[in-house]
Write a structure and sequence with these properties.
The chain is an alpha+beta fold and 380 residues long. Helices cover 32% and strands 22% of the residues.
Amino acid sequence: MTTLDLIQHLVRFNTVSRDTNLPLIEYVATYLDGFGIESHQVTSDDGKKSNLYASIGPEESGGVVLSGHTDVVPVDGQDWESDPFNPQVKDRKLYGRGTCDMKGFIGTALALIPEMNSLSRPIHLALSYDEEVGCKGAPRMIRELSNNLPKPEAVIVGEPTRLSAITGHKGMVTLKTSIQGFEAHSSQTHKGVSAVMIAAKLVDTLNTMAVQLADVTSKDTGFEPHHSTIHIGVIHGGTAINIISRHCEFQWDIRCIPSDDPQTIINEFEKFCQDEVLPNMKHISNDCYITTETTASAPPFLMKESPASALMHALAIPAGDRYAPYVAEAGQFQAAGFPTVVCGPGSIDQAHKPNEFIDLEQIEQGELFLRKLIQRLSIC
C-alpha cells in the first residue's frame, strides 16, 4: 500500500473528537500485526476512544517517538466542495478532513514501516485521541511511554509545519463561566438581574484584559501574535426578549506564551467577578452567582536546544522562523521529560477549514524526511 493510499484510508475514518476513534485504532493495530509488531492501547475512561503505541526495532534506548493525534475537528456548517471523508486528489492536492492535520503524518509513518527492518535503535509510534478538544487523551499514554519504553532520543510531534522544526508553542486553558441572575419582567429591570447583561460585562472585561496583554508584552517573543490571548468562543443564555434572563454561560480560552501564567489571568478575572460584580447581583437576590470552571488545559512548549532539535539539525531539517501559534501535545511530552520537537508535512494554514488539503509534494517530502530518520537509526 502506498503512502497516499494509507493516508486516504485513514481519512475515510470519521474520527471527529466527539465520536469514537476505535475503528481507526483497530485498523492500525491490525496493520501493525501484519508486520509482527505488537501494539498497546490506552483507552479513555468510557472505553469509547483509545491511544495506541508500538515499537519497531530493538528494545534499546536512543530511539525516536513519532507522535500524532487521530482525531479531527468537525465539518458541521462548513462549505465543502467534496465529501470531507472521501478524500480526493485534484491539482496535486489531497483534499479531506485530516489530510494535513494530521493523518498525513500518521499515514506516512505507517507506510514506511516495511523500510524499518534494519533499525539499530527503535522507532516508536504514539497515536492519541482528543487532541483537538484540549489535548485530553495523550497524558495517560505518555505516562505509559515513560514507564515502559527505553529512554528515547527525541519525540517528533508531526503537526503540519511544512517540515520545518518548531521548538515552541503556546499553552492553553479552556474555561466555562456560568451566571445565574434573577428573572423578572423586562420592563422592571430594577427588580431583576439579567444573566445575559452580566455576561456581556464580563466579556467586555476579558476583552480589556486581552488588550492589556498585547500592550505589556514584548514584541520579540517569537510568537505570532507576540502575546498571550483571550478569546470568547460560545455564549448561550436567555429565554425570551421580554424576560430578564436567569441563566447565561460562555466558553472562553487563554492561549499563553510560556512566560505567562494563565492562573494569574484567571485569578484577576475571578477577583473582578467576586468583588465588583457579584455584590450588586446579590443585592437583588442572594441566589445569584458567577462560577468559572476549567474544562481543559495543556502546557506550553519551549525547548530551543535539546537532543530533539539536534536531531533535526543532523537530518538537515530547517528551523522554523517562529514558534507555533497553536497548542499541541509537545508541551505534555516536554513536561514528562522527553526531548521534543514539532515537525510534520502540510501547512497549518489549511487545517480546520473547509476543503482542507495537503500538497502531494509535502507528502513526498515527508517520506524523504522519515527515510532519512530511518537511515540514521539504522546505523550501528
